[in-house]
Amino acid sequence: xxxxxxxxIGDYFRFYNHDRLHxxxxxxxxxxxxxxxxxxxASSGV
Length: 46
Known about the structure:
Largest sheet: none
Radius of gyration: 15 Å
Distance between the termini: 42 Å
């Protein structure tokens, strides 16, 4: 049996991670913060 979430939940997660500005992250999206951290690790050689 396959359980599927409604299409709307995927759209919301996409909005939440890619488009929504988060006050606690200095009005950046989660993806922006994630990518900055990833780039920082890559440049530090970790």
